[in-house]
Amino acid sequence: MNIFRLAGDMTHLASVLVLLLKIHTIKSCAGISLKTQELYAIVFASRYLDIFTDFISLYNTCMKLIFLGSSFSIVWYMRRHKIVRRSYDKDQDTFRHYFLLLPCLLLALLFNEKFTFKEVMWTFSLYLEAVAILPQLVLLQRTRNIDNLTGQYVFLLGAYRGLYILNWIYRYFTESHYVHWIPWISGLIQTLVYADFFYYYFDSWKNNKKLQLPA
Fold it and tell me: Membrane-spanning residues where (predicted)?
């Protein structure tokens, strides 16, 4: 554990709390992509298969439970809650997210550090997480109506991955033989996916104007 890893985890946790705050307090999921939330639920379910078999630390287990529970809770709220689901704009959230699953699985089968079920699924979760935000970004481009909580949620998700890259750089220079190409490359791709959003987010903040993405 180092400061960059801790900051990344806390930023990731903050993104979830912001989204849950919006759903629970405002009773709205307007501007939120159900497709992205479903992809994240698959990411965490496939990544944390070892949650009850390989104990690392209490902190590690708690974080896994939080991300698993929150991701499936958000999907449930958007699909089943009688008030929240009314605010979901399925006509705009039309990205065919299931087309992302097979390529990511094939990549995981071809490029992994060890050909075991858990390792392949863990690698699959990395590839899928790199592109899971795409339906959300496409939805924001279509609606162009980005409220503060939604903008903060997406920004915190991107910032979490950026902090993890700093964590990897730090560990590379402080730990011997620390080389993990698969997480590094997928994490870099994920950060680049956010680049356009970051530009417009900081531009809106600098000029004190409403956040909008170009159509």
Answer: 55-77, 98-115, 121-140, 152-170, 182-202
